Amino acid sequence: MHRRLFPRALAVLALVATAAAAGTTTATAEAPTPAQTRLNATIDAVLADSRLSGAQAGVVVVDTTTGRTLYDRNGTRRLIPASNTKLLTSAAAMELLGPGHRFTTEVSADGPRRAGMLRGDLYLRGGGDPTILAADYDRLAQQIAATGVRVVAGDLVADDTRYDSDRLGPDWTWDDEPYYYAAQVSALTVAPDTDYDAGTVIVHAAPGSRAGAPPKVTMTPENSWLRIDNRAETVADGETSISFEREHGGNTVVVTGRIAVGQAAESDWVTVWEPTGYAADVFRSALRRHGVRVLGRTVLGSATPDTAEPLARHDSMPLADLMVPLLKLSNNGHAEVLTKELGRQLSGSGTWAAGLSAISGYVGDAGVDTGTLRQRDGSGLSRRNLVPPAQFVTLLSAVRAEPWFDTWYAALPVAGNPDRFVGGTLRSRMGGTAAANNVHAKTGSLTGVSALSGYVTDADGRLLAFSIVLNNYLTSSVKGLEDQIALALASYTEKETATVRRTVPAAPESPRVPEGRECSWVKPALC
C-alpha cells in the first residue's frame, strides 16, 4: 500500500480545469450555432414534460475538448445527487489510494505455540475488504491448519479497529437499515456472493415437501450469527409471496408468507446487525472444518497486539478491479469503505469525516468548487448531499487527464449493453439507439430523485461530459427523460445541412423502480 498526500503534482489538472472554465466563459459569450440552438430546444422540450411539473431540474453539457458549454439549465443549483455522489468518491479513491490498492485481512497469534496448541489468542484483523467471501475465510483457516495449530487455548479476537465503530452513514433513514443497500460498514465483514454486498446474508425459502409443511429456509453463507424465525407456510397452489424481515437491533430474520409446492425457492439479501461478529462466526466455523478448535470466546473489537505473529493473510482484488462492482452495480458499501479507507490512509483516522475531507481535497484540486456543494457520505444514500450539476461536469472534464482515467471510464455503466458487468445499471436503457454502447454514465435514484452523469460521444466524434439531476418529482420514474436527453447528445452534430430532425425519438421507458430503490437495488435482475 502507498500513500498520496494532497500537496502533489496537479499542475496538469489545474491547467485543464482553467482551460475548461475559460472555454465555458467564451462559449457563453459566443452566439450559439444552429445545431446548438436545436439541441437546446430539444432538451428544453424534454424538461417541459409534465412529469417534471413542480420539480427541479439541472442539466449541463460540455464539450470536453474545447470546454464549450453546449447546454446549461440550473447548472449552479444545488440538488440531491443520489448515487452520482460515487463519482466524487471513486475518482478520489483512484487518485489517492491508487489503482493497485488492496485490502488485507490477516490472522495472527499472540502466544507461544507448542505441540499443535496456541497458548494465547488468535486475532482476525480486518483491513476493510468489502469483497471478502466465506471461501476466503475458509482459505485463511486452511492456512492456519497448515501451520500445525490444532487448538487455540485463548480467544478468537475479531479486530475491526482499522475503522471507527460508526456502522451506519450519517443521515441514513432508519427504514433503509434492513436492506442490503444500507448494510452496516465495518473493517471486518463478509460478502455472500460476487456482487460483493458486504455485511449481508442471502436467505432462501424453498417449499416444504407437502402443503402445510414449513418452507425449508437456508442461508448463504451458512452461519449461526443470524437466527431464522420461520412463520411461512407451504401451500398446494397459488401465488408465492414470501417476505424476509430482520428485526431492528438484532439478528433474527422473520420469514412470513406462502410458497406453493413445486415452486422455485425465493431469496432475498438481508443485512446483519454487527458485521464484525458475522465475519468472526464464519471464520470460526471454517477453523472447525479444518480441524482447529478455539477453546475461548469470540471477542469483538479489540486491536491486534504489535507482538502478534502473522500466520495467514488474504489480499483483495486491486482497486482498479473493485471499480467494476462499485460503479456498474452502484454498490453503496464499497463507496463507504473507500471513504473510511481514504481517511485512514491520509490522516490515520478511519472515519467518515476524515474520508470526506480527503475526497473534498482531491476534487477541489481537480477544479471542483467545493464551496458550492455538500457531501455527507460516500455513496449518495444521504439526502443531505447537495451537488450542482456543473460541478459534476467539471470533475468529469478534469479526470480525463488522469493516468487511471481509462480504467475508471470503463467501469461506468454502459447504456444498452446486456452484459450485467458491462451495462450495469444502464443495461436495459437506451438499447437500439445511438446512445447504446456509447453512453458511459453513473445512475442515481432515491424516491423523488434521479440522476445520470457521465460521457457520450456525439455524432461528430466529440466526447461530451454531461450531468442530469432531477429532484422533487412525484411520478414513479423520470429515467425515460434522462434517456431522451442522452440520445439527443449522442445524435448531436454540427454537420447537418438541409434535413434536420428537430425532435428526438422517445427512448424506451425504463422499468419501474420500487420507491426509494436505486435501479441496481432491484435484485437479482438489474433494471
UniProtKB/TrEMBL annotation:
| Signal peptide per UniProt | 1-22
Instruction: Output the Gene Ontology terms for molecular function.
Output: serine-type carboxypeptidase activity
Keywords, sorted A to Z: Carboxypeptidase, Hydrolase, Protease, Signal
Cite a single GO BP annotation.
peptidoglycan metabolic process
**Pfam families reported in the protein's UniProt record:** Peptidase_S13
InterPro entries with a match to the protein in the record? Beta-lactam/transpept-like, Peptidase_S13
> In which family does this protein belong, per the annotation?
Belongs to the peptidase S13 family.
**What protein name is recorded for this chain?**
D-alanyl-D-alanine carboxypeptidase / D-alanyl-D-alanine-endopeptidase (Penicillin-binding protein 4)
- Look up and give the organism this protein is from: Micromonospora marina
